[in-house]
Amino acid sequence: MELLEGLWNEVIGFLGITQVLEILQSGDYTAFRTYDGVLSLIYPIIPLLVILEFILGLVYKKPQTKVYKVNFLIYVFNRFVGRFIAIAMVTFCIGLFQPYAPFQTSSTWYWFIYAYIVWEFGHFIYHYLGHKVRLFWCLHATHHAPEEMNLSVTYAHFFLEGPYADTIRTTVCILAGVEPAMLLLIMFIDGTYGAFIHVGENFIKDARFGWLNKIMLTPSHHRVHHARNPLYIDTNFCNLLNIWDRVFGTYQEEQPEIKIEYGVTRKMNTGNFWDVYFGEIVALARDVFQAPGLKNKLLYLIMPPGWNHTGAHKTAKLVRAKYFNNIDK
C-alpha cells in the first residue's frame, strides 16, 4: 500500500494538482480567487499539455517515443537526487547578497518591468556560460541532447544545472535590488513560460506567433536555440524577452528554408539515458586525462566545447564563422 501511495503522490506531483486537490477536499472553493488558488490552477497546465502533445503524436504517428522515454527517466532520476537543492540555493543567495544591494525595489508595475529585465540579464549570463564554458556545458548538454522538440524536453536537465542557474540569476537580481517576493513571482512566470517554449510541432507547427516574434522570444526562437545547424548554433539565450540577445549579437530568427536539426554536435546515443545524462562529463574527463600539462587540463574545463589543445578547434564560434564565410564567397 505504501508503494502505491508513493506512486500516486508522484503522479499528482508531476501533474501539479496537489494544491487543487487540497482546495477541492476542503470544500472552500473561494480559495481559487486567492493568489495561491490561481497559481494552483496554472501549475497543471504544462504537465497536461505534455500528455496532450504525446497523444497528438500518436494520432499523427509521430510520437517521438525515444525522446519521451529518456526525458521521463531524467525526470524520475532528478526527483530523487536534486529535489530541494535549487530552492536551497535561492534562499541562500537572497540571505547572503540582499544586504549588499544599493537599493530595494517595491511592488509597482515599473519596478516589475525593471526586475524582469534584470532577471533576463541573469538568465542570459547563466545560459551563455552554459554554452561557452565546457564544465558548465556538461551540466547543460543533457537539455540539448533530444533530437526532437516537445514539451517533455523541459524536464531534461542535469540535476546540478538548476542550482547553478538559480545561483547566478538570483545573485544578479538581489544585487540589483529586486525584492525577494517579486523575484519569486518572476521565477514562477519564467518557469511556466520557459516550459511552454519547448512545445513541439505536433502541437504547434508554426511557432513564430506573427508580430510577437519581433518583440518577445517565441517557441520558434527556442527551437533555433536547440538546433545544431551552423546558422543557429549558440543563439537565442534569453527566455521571454529577447532584449539581451539583441544587445550582445546572439539573436537569430528561424529561417523557413533551413530545417532545424536538433541535438548536440557530439556523436551521441540519444536513446541511452546514461549517454544523454553523463556522456559529456565522460568526454570531458577523457580529454582532461589525455591533455598534456596542467595548463591544458585546466583549459579544457573553462574553454568552450570544441576547444582542443592541438589547435584543431571546433567551437561553435568557428563553425558559425566558417558558415558565413562560405555564404559570402
SSE blueprint:
Blueprint: H1 2-15, H2 18-26, H3 35-42, H4 45-59, H5 65-81, H6 85-97, H7 109-132, H8 134-144, H9 161-175, H10 180-196, H11 212-215, H12 219-225, H13 243-248, H14 273-290, H15 293-302, H16 316-328
Description:
With about 325 residues, the protein is an all-alpha fold. The protein has a domain at about 65-275. The chain contains 16 helices and no strands. Helix 7 crosses helix 9 (about 160-175). The longest helix has 24 residues, at about 110-130. It is globular. The model has no long low-confidence stretch (mean pLDDT about 85). One of its GO terms (cellular component) is endomembrane system.
Strand fraction band? under 5%
Number of strands: 0
Structural Rg: 21 Å
Shape: globular
Order of helices and strands: HHHHHHHHHHHHHHHH
Q: Based on helices, strands and strand pairing, what is the structural class?
A: mainly alpha
> In terms of per-residue confidence, which ranges show pLDDT below 50 for 5 or more consecutive residues?
none
Mean pLDDT: 87
InterPro entries: Fatty_acid_hydroxylase, Sterol_desaturase/TMEM195
Transmembrane segments: 41-60, 72-97, 109-129
Domain Fatty acid hydroxylase: 113-250
Protein name: Sterol desaturase family protein
